[in-house]
Amino acid sequence: MIEVKKIGPWTRVGQLLAAAPRRMQAAFDKALLQEGHFLRTKIVEGIREQAPGGRAFVPLAPTTLAIRQFRGFRGTKALLVQGDLRNSITVVKDGDRILVGVLRTARSRSGKSLVDIAALQEHGSQPIVVRITPRARAFLHAAFRRAGLDEPSSGQPGIGIAIIQIPARPFLAPVFEAYAQPEQISRRFLERVASQLSGDFGRV
């Protein structure tokens, strides 16, 4: 008969093995959330820098800037007036998935659907016909005069309409294309899990 003698902290080893499934699941969950917040940060940075994923936004039209300034807002950046859209970008954990974007329930301060606004900015619009009331026309004239602009050529004074089109300013897709390729996500995820488990289980 061969006698086997245990040498070392076997009690501790047993504790670690018993706790391993729970520790692994906790590490996975935390790594998922960290990845979601990493992508959210990149989206917010992209809006702030006006180039999500390195793809520059279409600049705002001079008429848009004139209206902003007339209303007292001096900023010149797209998608940033009150910050509602930027602040609505959130991270939600759904089981083993992480969702990063704008929730369908999100609303602006004025009650508008932010997911609709996000889709409009992401994809742009078709030409939109806007009826210009006398009050709106007076407002536009005053705004353009203050900015040194003529009446926009899209206006139709005789019939009281204007045709506008919002260009696409994607702020989600370029970030996912730049930072969310499968190999990138896998590498970051494994590094995060390894970092959390390294104290007791060694580095992966």
Descriptive account of the structure:
This protein has 204 residues and is mainly alpha-helical. The protein has 2 domains: 10-125 and 168-201, no CATH class; 126-165. Helix content is 51%, strand content 11%. The chain is built from 7 helices and 5 strands. The strands form 2 sheets. A 3-stranded antiparallel beta sheet has the order 3-5-4, with no helix packed on it. Strands 1-2 form a two-stranded antiparallel ribbon. The longest helix has 40 residues, at 10-49. It is elongated. The two termini are 38 Å apart. The mean pLDDT is 85.
Number of helices: 7
Shape: elongated
Order of helix and strand elements from N to C terminus: HHHEEHEHEEHH
Distance between the termini: 38 Å
Radius of gyration: 27 Å
Strand proportion: 5-15%
How many extended strands? 5
Q: Largest beta sheet, briefly?
A: 3 strands, antiparallel
What low-confidence regions span 5 or more consecutive residues with pLDDT below 50?
A: none
- What topology, given as strand order, has the largest sheet? 3-5-4
Structural class: mainly alpha
Number of domains: 2
Let me know the average pLDDT.
Answer: 85
What is the share of helical residues? 40-55%
